[in-house]
């Protein structure tokens, strides 16, 4: 008899990829979501409608499954919910944003370059995490982790980096994709173009979730791509994939002359180690970062063109990019004249 899994958040980019990976490995999968997002092209839209805040409904839906994968949990209350389930094991998507810098800051509280966290390169899973009572993303995720690790139910916590993949409502790579489509001839990057913020392909996240599902246990693993390219390398790769040539100019410090910063324009590196995932569960990334990027670009271009054919725009495809300041990404004025000396 096939093993069974419930994927919570099954209509999101991570949930879709995890369900695909489990099914390909022979699992029977039920995908649960609120039903508020349309299915991604080429992905089955089957599943059940579930509000994960409804604990009774969650218990009924999860009852007896060998595995529950929760892609949307982010509070201690969610952790307590999960620990009451009658299931074999859990895989829960956490975030690399739980790590606290050596200078006592973390990603939620960054207001300027000086407040950006100081991290080792690379960050391992033993590095300290945020532990305070603030009700923001990183502290809540860290508290969720502690709650889950204190329970008896086997749980694998996956600390994801900058997630990217087909179906994303906030595909950061659009910063460069749109520049290529608009045939922009120059891009200006701060911090010498050397910013590094570790990407995490949904396909690679799904492969790691599958590896954990097949070897249940209590563990915390980083979940990112094997490579961590620089800001400039990401731009060049996107331009190459779209056959676009552009000059990438850089400035040594923060953004100048009203030129926007890309989502990877960080003053200090944020790079994670995947050694423990390889050692603990035999994880092997199915995609290189470049191969995953190619899938992102192909999907994004087609999705935006469909939206435009229907009278919409890229805002309809990537509604969550506003949180990254995307409304200010594409004025181009400062980049067209180049950085001042």
Please give a structural write-up.
With 341 residues, this protein is α/β, with parallel strands linked by helices. The protein contains 11 helices and 11 strands. The chain has a single domain, classed as 3-Layer(aba) Sandwich (Rossmann fold), CATH 3.40.50. The protein has helices at 13-24, 55-62, 76-83, 137-149, 174-181, 202-213, 231-241, 275-281, 289-309, 314-317, 333-337, and strands at residues 4-8, 28-33, 48-49, 67-70, 89-95, 155-160, 162-164, 186-189, 199-201, 219-223, 247-250. Strand 5 (89-95), helix 4 (137-149) and strand 6 form a beta-alpha-beta unit.
Descriptors for this entry?
341 residues, alpha/beta, Rossmann fold, seven-stranded parallel sheet, two-stranded parallel sheet, 11 strands, globular
- Output the CATH homologous superfamily: NAD(P)-binding Rossmann-like Domain
Oligomeric organization of the protein chains = single chain
Q: Give the structural class.
A: alpha/beta
CA-to-CA gap between the ends? 68 Å
Average of per-residue pLDDT values: 94
CATH architecture: 3-Layer(aba) Sandwich
Separate helix tally = 11
**CATH level-3 fold name:** Rossmann fold
The biggest sheet, with number of strands, parallel, antiparallel or mixed sense and barrel status, is: 7 strands, parallel
Ranges where pLDDT stays below 50 over 5 or more residues in a row are 38-45
How would the global form be characterised?
globular
Order of helices and strands: EHEEHEHEHEEHEEHEHEHHHH
């Amino acid at each position: 008899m096939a093993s069974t899994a419930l994927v919570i958040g099954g209509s999101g980019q991570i949930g879709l990829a995890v369900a695909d990976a489990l099914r390909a490995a022979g699992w029977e999968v039920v995908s649960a979501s609120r039903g508020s997002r349309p299915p991604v092209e080429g992905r089955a839209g089957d599943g059940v409608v579930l509000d994960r805040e409804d604990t009774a409904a969650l218990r009924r839906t999860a009852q007896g499954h060998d595995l529950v994968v929760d892609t949307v949990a982010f509070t201690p209350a969610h952790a307590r919910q999960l620990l009451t389930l009658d299931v074999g094991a859990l895989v829960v998507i956490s975030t690399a944003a739980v790590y606290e810098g050596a200078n006592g800051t973390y990603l939620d509280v960054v207001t300027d370059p000086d407040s950006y966290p100081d991290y080792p390169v690379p960050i391992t899973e033993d590095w300290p995490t945020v532990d305070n009572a603030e009700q923001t993303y990183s502290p809540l995720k860290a508290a969720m982790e502690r709650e889950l690790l204190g329970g008896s139910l086997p749980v694998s916590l996956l600390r994801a980096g900058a997630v990217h993949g087909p179906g994303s409502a906030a595909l950061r790579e659009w910063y460069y994709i749109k520049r290529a489509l608009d045939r922009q001839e120059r891009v200006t990057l701060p911090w010498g173009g050397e910013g590094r913020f570790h990407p995490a392909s949904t396909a690679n996240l799904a492969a790691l979730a599958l590896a954990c599902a097949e070897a249940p246990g209590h563990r915390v693993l980083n979940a990112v791509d094997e490579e961590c390219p620089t800001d400039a390398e990401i731009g060049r790769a996107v331009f190459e994939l779209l056959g676009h040539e552009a000059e990438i100019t850089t400035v040594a410090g923060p953004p100048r002359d009203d030129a926007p910063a890309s989502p990877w324009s960080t003053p200090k590196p944020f790079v994670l180690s995947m050694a423990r995932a390889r050692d603990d569960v035999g994880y092997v990334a199915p995609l290189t970062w470049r191969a995953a990027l190619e899938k992102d670009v192909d999907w994004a271009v087609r999705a935006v063109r469909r939206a435009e054919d229907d009278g919409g725009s890229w805002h309809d495809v990537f509604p969550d990019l506003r949180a990254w300041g995307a409304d200010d990404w594409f004025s181009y004025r400062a980049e067209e004249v180049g950085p001042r000396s």
